Amino acid sequence: MRSIARRIIALAIVIATAPALAQTYPTRPVTIVVGYPPGASSDLLARTVGDPLSAMLGQPVVVDNRSGAGGNVGAAYVARAPGDGYTLMVGTDAMLTSNVYLYKNTPFDPVRDFAPITNAGANIICLAVSTALPVNSVAELIAYARANPGKLSFGSSGTASPHHLAGELLRLKANIDILHVPYKG
User: Fold this and answer.
1) From CA 13, how far away is CA 161, in angstroms rounded?
2) 14-71: per-residue pLDDT in tens?
3) What's the pTM?
4) Does an H or E element contain 11, and which?
5) Which of 66, 79, 170, 176 fits as disulfide partner to 113, beta carbons 3.0 to 4.6 Å?
6) Is the Cα dihedral 82, 88, 93, 95 positive or negative?
7) CATH 3.40.50.720 fits 7-102, yes or no
């Protein structure tokens, strides 16, 4: 009797999974959404991965830049897309962690709306200065900024970006007067 029950269960599993096994993926182009403008590091990553992924899948892979609101525009688009594997996203640390705290209305839930596939890179934040500035260390930079309040500025990839937050943290912790200059990506 047990042998018959096992066979019936095995047959039921095979029958239930047969349609899934018959489906092929992908049957049309796959889109990788980047929440930042062309040229951003996440855009470079998507374009670097896109060609080999296209060759592997046998379908075109299209990079779709949907920039705005620190990546929220692109992430919201992906969150609303069908969960069929045809719309992928290069998710960044800002989009998936800090934006929910920095923006009044984030149109997605980073935990509920996305399923991580792989970790493809890391966000590196570095501090660099012009060689014309008479400093050779972070301590000298802080001393120079304190001696010249309001004369230094720092650029970032945009307001509320990790780069902006790092600059503001330096400003607060070092008690220096520096100006944030946001760029559009």
Assistant:
1) 48
2) 565 555 555 689 999 999 999 999 988 899 999 999 999 999 999 999 999 999 999 9
3) 0.77
4) helix 2-22
5) 79
6) negative
7) no
